[in-house]
Amino acid sequence: MSEISILSLDLRPLLAAGTDPLSGVVEQASRLPSGARLQLLAPFNPLPLRRVLGQMGFSSQAGKQPDGAWRIDLQRDGRGLVENQPGPEDCAGLPPEATVWQAADGHHIDVRGLPMPLPMLAILRLVGGLQGGEQVVVHHDRQPAFLIPELAEIGWSLEPKGQGEGGELLFLLRRFQ
Amino acid sequence: MMFGDFMMGARSRLLPMSIPLRFFGAAVLFHIAAWGLLLGAAGDAPGFMGGLGHLLASLHFVTLGVLAMTAMGAAFQLLPVATKRPVRSEAACKAAFWLMVPGLLALGHGMGRGDGLVLAVGGLLVAAALTLFGLLVVDNLRRVKDMRVITDQAWIAMAGLLTLLVLAGLLVADYALGGFLGNHQGLALAHGVVAAYGFMGMMVMAFSFVLIPMFCLSPPPDVKNGQRAGWLAGAAVLLAAVGLALSLTPLVVLGGLLGLAASGLHLRVMFKVLKSRMRKQLGDSFILVRLAWGLMPLSILVGLAAAFGVAPDRTGPLFGFLLVFGWLLTFLLGVLQRILPFLASMHSVRPGVKPALVSALTADRPLRLHMITHIAALTLVSAGLAGQWVWLVRLGAACGLVAAVSFALSVAYLVNSLRKHLNNQMQHVEK
Q1: What would the pLDDT profile of B333-391 be if each residue is shown by its tens digit?
Q2: 3-class secondary structure, B316
Q3: Of B6, B191, B33, residue with least CA distance to B104
Q4: Which of A169, B38, B89, B285 is placed for a possible disulfide with B58 were both Cys, Cβ 3.0 to 4.6 Å?
Q5: pLDDT tens digits, one per residue of B251-298
Q6: Burial B351-390 (b: 16+ CB within 10 A, else e)
Q7: Which of B6, B217, B354 is nearest residue A143 as measured by Cβ atoms?
Q8: What is the ipTM of this complex?
């Protein structure tokens, strides 16, 4: 009987250094054979990454550990099911569908793969809870044209910030001077 | 990526503002003309069962001049942003406009004066404009793999557009060539049902899936029920139209019942969106949207009463009015109140400068007056048609005219405010 290969990756040091681990994980996961298992450790539930891996045939389950970290168990079974994924009904409070983390250049929010208008909803919720001179970096898979008037109405500007490591579009949000 | 690249990227999908604005501007003027024609022909409205005249022209100024014109401007502007695929040709969008406006004026003139030749020429121009619009939308939709609900409903709307154009062609030819159709009135009713529910109604449902959650800041609507509502509505329109064309009342009734089920499902999805919204204050525009939602099933119920032969000289005209001026026009005006300032703000984005605020572009007083007088117009004309009181229809149409002028004033205020903002931006950049 052949042994099922397991790859474990701890994403926490990379994220703490402000590096997006998506492209690295995708590259390593793409080398795994059918049936292989992948285990990830992250400070949050990395839904965009799980959705991307889901498109590569990885089904995943996520659970919060006693120390606050998230453990994501994935298997390349060809089905690409993303279990324990919050639905639209869980929209109260801060955006659970989007991944939010803090880095040296401010808050980051990853809204890739979310259906319209959840990205707008998640971003407005995040900036609505911020105070002072804080800024936000948005990781997006489209130009958020509809978001700009809503942000302007609450005193925030949106500027392009180039591309992220995963090829996504980055936008910097900050208050108008 | 520099800011300019971002704007270029956004603008590759956001058409120049002059394109959607010309459609919206024309819709505002046809809105005034439609109520004006109804006011002038109010005496013919009670008991109206079809036929050429100013009432028919008024009805088409709403359906084609306001509803289709706005759908064209909104689809050219919003569909590419939503689907992430640009419109194939800006020149084709402009051509559709320049076919539509003179075509509709000729069509209205031909209907009003009973001139078959002018009617045929106008009809051909309008048909060409709508065909061009349909081809541009189909070209965009066929490249979309996701967004199933919206694309399903938009595909059904395009099938409705094709059917209504064929039926309209038959009706116009019948007028121009002296009457070869055995059942002109049945085909005219089928054309009306396909146009209002099959084309405009399906466009309303498709746009609702994008716009209502965006305006309310709500999670996306229920996809499964949205698809079911779309397919049910499509089947309902097909059954009702075939039943009307062949004078088969049971089919019409079955279509009406399926239509009621479809509208119930659609409204259930929309109310769930409203319930989970983040924006609590929705403003006057949503009073109109909610009213329109109520008028959607009401129009079907009154249509069913007419099909059953319950006072058809009262329920027949009332059905047409509640459907076109009630549900469709009211919904569209509610949405336009929100979307026009929103689109103008999107187009005012410049590097390093605050865009024009939606709140600063919204003319509250004219819009409040518009809402009140529009609701008064619907109430009075409906009562006048039900009671066959001409004076009440006339009073209601006068209210509608005031509403249309108020709406036009709000649009003029928006354009003026935007122009001032852009001039200030220019001065800021030059400094």
Answers
A1: 999 998 889 888 888 877 667 888 888 888 889 999 999 999 999 999 999 999 999 99
A2: helix
A3: B33
A4: B38
A5: 999 999 999 999 999 999 999 998 888 777 788 889 999 999 999 999
A6: eebbbbbbebbbbeebbebbbbbbbbbbebbbebbbeeee
A7: B6
A8: 0.75
Query: Could you write out the DSSP letters of every residue in B23-67?
Result: HHHHHHHHHHHHHHHHHHTGGG-TT----SSHHHHHHHIIIIIII
For the record, the structure tokens of B50 come out as 């079809």
Task: Return phi, psi of residue B409, to 5°.
Answer: -65, -40
Token representation of residue A84 = 């324990």
A117–B217 CB contact, under 8 Å: yes
Q: For residue B204, which of B97, B324, B377, B305 has the smallest C-alpha distance?
A: B324
Q: How far is CA A35 from CA A23, A38, A74, B230, B353, in A?
A: 21, 10, 10, 40, 53
The nearest CA of chain B is from the CA of A16 a distance in Å of 25
**Strand segments (E) across A11-103:** 37-42, 58-64, 70-76, 99-103
Contact B23, B69 (CB under 8 A): yes
Q: Is B276's CB within 8 Å of A120's CB?
A: no
- Give the nearest partner residue to B345 out of A89, A121, A149, using CB atoms: A149
| Model-wide pTM > 0.90 | no
